[in-house]
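Quick one from the shared queue. A colleague (R.T.) flagged S-adenosylmethionine-dependent nucleotide dehydratase RSAD2 as missing a structural entry in our internal table.

Convert sequence to structure tokens.
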Amino acid sequence: MRYWSGLKMKFSSALVSLRLLLQLCIRTVHDISASLFSTVWYWTPGVCRGASVVSTADREVDQKEVQNVMTPTSVNYHFTRKCNYKCGFCFHTAKTSFVLPLEEAKRGLKLLKESGMEKINFSGGEPFLHDKGEFLGKLVQFCKQDLQLPSVSIVSNGSMIKEKWFQKYGDDLDILAISCDSFDEATNQLIGRTQGRKSHIENLHKIRSWCQQYKVAFKINSVINTFNVDEDMTENILQLNPVRWKVFQCLLIDGENAGEAALREAERFVISEQMFQEFLERHSSVSCLVPESNEKMRNSYLILDEYMRFLDCREGRKDPSKSILDVGVKEAIRFSGFDEKMFLKRGGKYVWSKADMRLEW
């Protein structure tokens, strides 16, 4: 009797275990199936994803939103429009005299850094003109020391730069680009890149030596136009030995240097694509030459104006976005017209920190 009672208890216990095992198997199969079906539902147009319905159109909108979120890797901040030169082809003219207060400018730069900015280029107008270069110096210092940007650069005509500026702010500047369109003083006079009796060429060489002394990478920018298109600058460029020689084709921007509302009339400076190519071929032996035709230049720069608005140049004029100080970088950059692919194609991203250039000072 005890034997049958014990056997019955063992059989009952085994049955319970078998039932538990079977329940466990069923639950596992259910979980796996649910996981598989949820994956299929996620990718099938027009079916449930959780509590919402995802259509093909919805996914296309999501993808467009991702594509429209651009990173302001390299930004050109034209914080002033005032200039002491009168270059006939200038396409960022003195339409206003406005300059943001220093702390507001810093706030905008901080927003850009938080959005992914790696390089800031300060330009104008003439950036050394406002507050005798102190405003510019404080921005350079802030971007390098506080924001820790990999690259801080300036484009200037060089006429207002003093050695004491290098002594105070040179450590925080990676690249100084000086605009020089000709190595003939008479040609510079015709273009308007001059002030009084000062020699633009002599000043260029002086600044080159300061860059060497205070360990700032030296760069030259040239705008090729009807007055200098036949010039051979090879010998002078090789002597100055810049890290980059940026060569631009003269560009027309409606409302700036062309059209009824423009402060400049640059039509007489414009050259053809063929003329530009002939100039480049003449200087093909210069290894530091970086050419930029109108096609490459128009949409491949992120330009901030004096109000910290992105400027859209796609229609041949400068249409401003809302200020990043008011709507943020993500919203404003959507209206910039920026072509990231062309930015990369033209070599917009390069070794731009002087710490990485391995220059011999």
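The two ends are 104 Å apart (CA to CA).
The first strand starts at residue 47 and ends at 49.
Added to the table.
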